[in-house]
Design a protein that fits this description.
It contains 3 helices and 2 strands, in the order βαααβ. The protein has a two-stranded parallel ribbon with strand order 1-2. The protein is elongated and about 60 Å long.
């Protein structure tokens, strides 16, 4: 868990700052979730096209068992983006605003 501490000498400003931060974090999380859905759709396109799941494809890709066609490079990139977005969402979910 990551704690974000908000300090202010003025109680009203402190409360407003926390509300703004909470709203901004929620908005960012929604943006990441939307991006994650789009990326998942892209991964599903490749899975259907090549009749294999992304995890199996990526394992072969990392071992150098695929060729260098553009689709494979794009697919691997989409998967890395997917993983990155998942991590970002995880970080936001672990974040706690403290007094």
């Amino acid at each position: 868990m990551t704690e974000l501490i908000v300090k202010s000498a003025n109680k009203a400003e402190h409360k407003a700052a926390k509300a703004i931060l909470r709203e901004a974090l929620n908005r960012q999380k929604k943006m990441f979730q939307t991006a994650l859905l789009r990326t998942k759709e892209n991964l599903e396109f490749f899975e259907k096209r090549y009749n294999t799941d992304t995890a199996s494809f990526f394992a072969k890709y990392q071992r150098g068992e695929t060729d260098d066609r553009d689709d494979y490079i794009d697919w691997a990139g989409e998967f890395q983006i997917f993983q990155s977005i998942q991590n970002q969402i995880g970080y936001l979910e672990e974040l706690v605003l403290c007094k």
